[in-house]
Structures are given as C-alpha cells and as structure tokens.
Write a structure and sequence with these properties.
By secondary structure, the protein is of the alpha/beta class. It has two domains: about 5-190, 3-Layer(aba) Sandwich (Rossmann fold), CATH 3.40.50.1170; about 205-325, Rossmann fold (3-Layer(aba) Sandwich). It contains nine helices and 16 strands. The strands form four sheets. Strands 4-1-5-6-7-8-11-12 form an eight-stranded mixed β-sheet, with helices on both faces. Strand 9 and strand 10 form a beta hairpin.
C-alpha cells in the first residue's frame, strides 16, 4: 500500500446522518454513502482518498449482531489506512464496543453519526464525517482501537456513552476523550490498554441476553420472569453493585444455571468486591456466583456477554474473560 496518499473507506449503515425529512413525514434514511461524502466541505483539501461503501440502510436501533460481525470481517480485509463507519446514534455506544472486541490490528476504525439530520439547520453530519476521516487517516490514531468521533472529540469505544437524547454533544466518556481534532490536526492524549479480542468467525451460536435494572422496592419478580427466557443476564445494580435483599435468592438461583453479570447502573466507576458485606451487597452477590463487570457499564457488559455466548463459552470461561477487565 502506497503511503504517499492516505486512503480511507467510509461505510454507511444508515441512521440520522443519512436521513432527510419527507414532506408531512418524519426523517428516514435516504442518503447514500456518496451523498454523505459529497456533502462534506473541505474534504478535497485534505488530500485523503476516500472510498465509499453502502453497507446497510437502517436506523441505528435496527442494526444486529450479524450486521456488525459481517462488517468486521469486511473491513479487516481492506487495503486502506483507516475505516469510517457512519450510523444512527441510538446504538453507537454498543456497535463501537462490539467492533472493538471483534477487530484486531492497529488500523483506526472510527464510528460517527449525527444528531441533526441533513434537512435541519446546523446539521452536524458533514463536520463529524470530516473529523472522522481525518482520524481514520491519521498515523497518530493507529493502535487506539475502535473510536467514536463526535464534535471534534475522540472517544474510546470502551468508555463512550450517549448521555443526551437530542444534544449535538450527546457523546461523552469517563474518564474523558482520548483525543481531539484541533486546527485539522489529530491529537491523541491517551491510549486505552489493549483490549481482548473475540474472533468474529467464531461468534455464530444462538444466544439471547438481557439487562435488568434494579429499582427501589424490587422483589425479584422481574428477574425471575426475564431469567426464564435468556441464556445470560446483566444486572444493572445500585451503586457499586448492590441490590435489594429480596432479589438475592433469585439472583443466586439464576447464577446456578447461567452467567449473571453484576454491573453498576451509575454509568461509570467499578463494581466493588469486598467493601460492603450486607445481604445484597457486592461481596454477597459475588459469593452467590455472580460475575463482576468491573468497570464495564451494563450496556457494554451485555455486548461482551452476548459475544462470548455466541462463541459457546461456558460460565467459567465467561467469568475468566470478565476477570481480565480492569
């Protein structure tokens, strides 16, 4: 591959960034990859060669594991310096982490989108696409894993979250962005530690997972109902990994027949292991066989759990994998 010209492939999956408003109707996906790239001012001045691929035309909420696994296999075979994926923002925090788990190598894979469709004043799609292409083409971004670029910020897929329903600055991460685009230059301030990799070709077994968020006064009824229909469960618990005492017996029962992941519903920070000792505390639940999500939020924990079950991993193997997360 000739390094004199940086080459980036742009894959479109649909979503708000590819939507326009129809007369008397809501916005729907209508723009092709060529349309999106053509609408980016200043792209020609970058000197980056862009290849466009219409991969899917779906709202973000309708993308599937199969779609993303197929995409992962496709992008890793391309003779390019980087890849940009545009999609609906509803599921970016999930799809980016999935892609981070099933792709290897140093090539930048950048996910972006838009909060305002192309028919709206102040549409943010073109600026986000330009920034994402700059990151994907950047030598500085190599080795950062899959990232999300929004509003000139570069977020690690492992940490990024959508924290607002409509704001153009909806994407944030804790402990913060790993980099920025400043005066057209990509600046990487921190590099995530190497993440584990799940081979996409191996993720083919049928599996169903769910997240159950505990709330004040829960008695385990919902856990029991959901547990009857899934192969693995993520519990979004209070604080550092706590649930009402009335839920403990049901969770202990579920953990005997499936992997049950204990995560915190707060959105950031770790599940503890030995700070509290009351019934329903983190130490109590871990003693009953639940598996700590460590610093993964419930949404990311479910992505990893689902992938592992799709590779036919057993509960012990799943526990071992989650134990490597810092």
């Amino acid at each position: 591959m000739n390094d004199s010209t940086r080459r980036v492939a742009v894959f479109t999956l649909g979503g708000t960034i590819a939507m326009t408003a129809q007369t008397g109707e809501g916005a729907t996906p209508t723009l092709s990859a060529d349309d999106l790239v053509a609408a980016v001012p200043g792209l020609a001045d970058t000197g980056i060669a862009v290849e466009v691929v219409d991969f899917r035309q779906l709202p973000g909420a309708s993308l599937s594991f199969a779609d993303l696994l197929e995409l992962a296999v496709t992008v890793e075979t391309l003779p390019v310096h980087g890849v940009v994926i545009t999609q609906g923002t509803d599921t970016i925090e999930e799809t980016s982490y999935l892609l981070d788990l099933v792709t290897a190598g140093d090539m930048p894979i950048v996910v972006t989108g838009a909060m305002r469709n192309a028919s709206m004043a102040g549409a943010d799609g073109p600026a986000n696409v330009l920034a994402a292409i700059r990151v994907a083409a950047s030598a500085e971004a190599r080795g950062t894993g899959c990232t999300v670029v929004f509003g000139e910020e570069i977020h690690a897929a492992r940490w990024v979250r959508k924290t607002h329903a409509t704001s153009p600055t909806a994407f944030t991460s804790y402990p913060g962005p790993i980099g920025y685009i400043v005066e057209d230059r990509v600046r990487i301030m921190a590099r995530p530690s190497t993440s584990l990799t799940v081979a996409p070709h191996n993720a083919s077994a049928p599996a169903r997972t769910a997240i159950v968020t505990v709330g004040l006064g829960d008695d385990g009824t919902v856990l029991r109902a959901v547990g009857d229909h899934v192969d693995g469960l993520v519990v979004a618990a209070f604080g550092a990994g706590h649930v009402p005492m009335a839920c403990v017996d049901e969770l202990a029962s579920l953990a005997k027949r499936m992997p049950v992941i204990l995560a915190t519903r707060t959105g950031s920070g770790p599940v503890l292991s030995q700070t509290y000792g009351f019934p329903g505390s983190e130490s109590d639940l871990l003693t009953h066989g639940l598996i700590s999500a460590s610093t993964l939020d419930p949404i990311k924990a479910r992505i990893l759990l689902q992938l592992l079950l799709m590779t036919s991993a057993n509960t012990d193997q799943i526990a071992q994998t989650f134990s490597t997360i810092s």
